């Protein structure tokens, strides 16, 4: 029979592994509809940002025009891409990251 100390140590290891595994799962996302072309009606284009806790993931951009729709994907690493990002893509990434909290007077966020 294992002691309570051994069981607690095993539970701690399981929790730490779950925390490490969970860090790489999808945790941040945003969807932004927009109109990149003045000659089309409405916000038919969209951006989808999917990222893990470290900002690794992808930006998916669907550009809708009269003659068709094009879909582009750009990889994200630490919230940046090796490909140039449009203003709309940067906005969608900022939304996916979530609100930035400033510390309060007690040094807490």
Task: Describe the structure in your own words.
With 109 residues, this protein is an alpha+beta fold. The chain has one domain. The chain contains 2 helices and 4 strands; from the N terminus they run H-E-E-E-E-H. Strands 1-2-3-4 form a 4-stranded antiparallel sheet, covered by helices on one side. It is rod-shaped, with a radius of gyration of 20 Å.
Element order: H for helix, E for strand: HEEEEH
What is the terminal separation in angstroms? 44 Å
Rg for CA atoms: 20 Å
Q: What is the typical, i.e. mean, pLDDT?
A: 85
Strand content: 25-35%
- Count every beta strand, where a strand is a DSSP E run of 2 or more residues: 4
Poorly predicted tracts of residues:
105-109
Order of strands in the sheet with the most strands?
1-2-3-4
Can you tell me the overall shape?
rod-shaped
Output the number of helix runs: 2
